[in-house]
Amino acid sequence: MTVESSSTRLEALDWIRGIASMWVVLYHVDLTLQKAKYFGLPPLSPVTAVGYRGVELFFVLSGFIMARSYARGAAAGWHDAIDFAIRRIFRIFPLYLIVSIPLFVVAASAGIGRPPADVALDASLFFKNLFLLPRDDLSTFIPVSAWTLSHELMFYAVFLIWFFAPRLFIAALTLWAGLSLVLTLLDVRPAGWQMQTNALNAYFLAGAACSMLGRLGRPRHLWVLGLAAAMLLSAAISLEAASRAAGIAAHACYAAAFCLIVYCLSFGTPSLPRFIEAPMRYLGRISYGIYLVNYPLVVVIALVCIKAGLHAYAVPLVMLGAIGATILVSDLLHRFVERPGIALGRRVFRKPLSVARQEVIR
Q: What's a Pfam family this protein contains (predicted)?
């Protein structure tokens, strides 16, 4: 089996994070430009119109990383399970709270970015947001993109089973994904359990299954799989654009395409000029911040353009302004919140991890 260096694998994962996060940014720019209360413009392109699919790419990557970095040996027990949970908490919550709490205060006091009018911004909702509790109404998350973190936390909860019974973890993940898919196909949405049974949960299983393919070694003609991923992704976007809704065929194409993308890049990034490689790695490193803050910043930039009467230049100004502001804010959050939080999580138990397992905390 071909074993790549840790740095090569991490660079590849950063590429995927960077691509997925910027795809989400472009989607929010497109969505904001389309809304009648802002500019009422037509969609920019089929690619940006489905940029929310970057979330599913994140889920596939998350499942892949967990299975590849942890699920390689025997069950580890309570100490490793607690160590894993602490690292995940310090990876997610410091940056999330720094962003979420001020936005909640602004929404409650000034009404900017608040959920629908019939939703009370009370202590109950504050604590639901504080702990990222799943719920049926995704619009009550502040920032609204934080709903995906609830899916991540649910996956982490299932993954904890691996530390005691690896086979039971595989069975539980398969059952969870299968139940979510079946209920979605039947259009059954249990009240109070819609997030827990959403078809998006199956993307974690797809990523975990994808990691198992990597154990077979590097394919001789990797470019063929890369081409297949591009074709599947194009087919999925076309299917969704044609029907204005994603059917099971589109979901299958997206899942297969994302798995192939992650699988191919797990063997290392292609040789490209440094002026391309460096920005991709950089965007990957700050991708968590990008994902959390981009939508509020897109809205702010759009409102500034409206106030300034720059409707004719809305597309370039909102796009460039939002991308620039998002990268700047995300960089600051990465330097002063995210990295210190990760470092603190590493020191809590002070248990050394193998190089392979350290990938998961990135």
A: Acyl_transf_3
CB atoms within 10 A of CB 247: 11
CA separation (Å) from 238 to 55, 315, 321, 328?
Answer: 18, 23, 29, 33
CA 296 and chain centroid, separation: 17
* Residue 78 domain flag: yes
DSSP 236-299: HHHHHHHHSS--HHHHHHHHHHHHHHHHHHTT------HHHHHHHHHHHHTHHHHHHHHHHHHH
Closest-CA residue to 259 (of 23, 56, 70): 56
Helices (H) and strands (E) in the chain, counts: 15, 0
Q: Report the alpha-carbon distance of residue 296 to residue 171 in Å, rounded.
A: 39
Per-residue DSSP letter, 212: H
Note whether residue 1 is domain-resident: no
50-102 pLDDT per residue, tens:
999 999 999 999 999 999 887 665 567 898 899 999 999 999 999 999 999 99
DSSP code for 113: T
Instruction: Write the CA distances from 89 to 167, 220, 300, integer angstroms.
Output: 25, 39, 30
CB 225 within 8 A of CB 219: yes
| Number of Cβ atoms within 10 Å of the Cβ of 324 | 12
Residue 184 and residue 331: Cα distance in Å, rounded? 38
Q: Are 202 and 255 in contact (CB under 8 A)?
A: yes
| Gap between the Cα atoms of 139 and 244, Å rounded | 21
Amino acid at 51: G
- What the block records as the tokens of 212 is 């198992």
* Domain of residue 241, residue span: 6-361
Distance from the Cα of residue 210 to its chain's centroid: 17
Helix (H) or strand (E) holding 227: helix 222-243
Distance CA 267, CA 269 (A): 7
The predicted model scores a pTM of: 0.92
Please count the CA atoms within 13 angstroms of the CA of 162 that sit on its side-chain side.
21
**Cβ neighbour number for residue 330 with a 10 Å cutoff:** 26
- In a domain, residue 16? The reply is yes
pLDDT in tens, 161-210: 999 998 999 999 999 999 999 998 899 999 999 999 999 999 999 999 99
Number of domains in the chain: 1
